[in-house]
Each structure stands twice: as C-alpha cells, then as structure tokens.
Specification:
There is one protein chain. The protein is α/β, with parallel strands linked by helices and 128 residues long. Helices cover 16% and strands 28% of the residues. It has a 4-stranded mixed sheet with strand order 1-4-3-2, covered by helices on one side. It has a 4-stranded mixed sheet with strand order 5-8-7-6, covered by helices on one side. The longest helix is centred in the first third of the chain and has 11 residues, at 20-30.
C-alpha cells in the first residue's frame, strides 16, 4: 500500500484560558521559537502558534477543561543539548536529564505543567 501520510504538519498542546503571555515568554523567549500569526477566523479562540525551524508548527490552544499532560508529550530537537541545559538553568527552568532511549535528552514542564522532551538528535527509526 502506498503511504498516504506525507509527514507531520503541526502539534497542538493545551493550556488554560489566558495562557498567551506565559506561552510567549516560554516558547518564544526561553526556547526561541518565532510566533506565527493565527488565521483571523481562529484568533478569537485564544492561544498562540509558533514556528519550528523545519517548517512545522507548535500550536498552544486554549482548553476550557485544561488538565496538564503528565505522560503524553511532544519532543523537540536541539543541536546542542549541553548549551540548551545551561540556557534552561540560566532561565530558571527546571529539567531532568535522561539517556535511557539511547540519546541525550531532557524532560521539563511548560508553564502550564505539560511534559516536554528535548532531544539532542532525532530517533532515527526506519519505517518498514
């Protein structure tokens, strides 16, 4: 069968109402992601969108019944994990280092309590 899925376009994490300033501070200023303009028809829903260097997007969406994700998470890639760890420490963002998956990575929480993973490199799994 031909693969019908071409790739990943974006991920959305949930946050409580009024999350925009904290999302901009964390994902924009701490992690350095550029903010993207949401389509006008979606702006009234709240939240904020960010661009990733590979063209994909991270959407922070408002959920009325928000509960932080404690196991499920998104994983971001970085070029230099030790440099990122120093930056997180300087910004006062707690994290835990881990290499059980065979690659250096850290786990941390966004301002809303959602679990995030940042890896030194990709998983490199082959399909098929």
């Amino acid at each position: 069968m031909t693969t019908l899925i071409a790739g990943l376009d974006h991920v959305q994490i949930e946050a409580p109402a009024g999350c925009e300033a904290a999302a901009r501070a964390f994902f924009g200023r701490v992690l350095g992601l550029p903010e993207l303009r949401k389509p006008p028809a979606l702006q009234s829903a709240g939240g904020v969108w960010f661009g990733l260097p590979d063209g994909r997007q991270l959407h922070v969406g408002v959920a009325a019944d928000f509960v932080p994700r404690v196991k499920g998470h998104l994983a971001l890639r970085c070029v230099n994990l030790p440099e990122l760890q120093t930056h997180l420490h300087t910004c006062g963002v707690p994290f835990q280092s881990d290499d059980r998956a065979g690659m250096p990575r850290v786990f941390l929480r966004d301002p809303f309590g959602n679990r995030l993973e940042i890896v030194q490199q990709g998983h490199g799994h082959d399909i098929g």
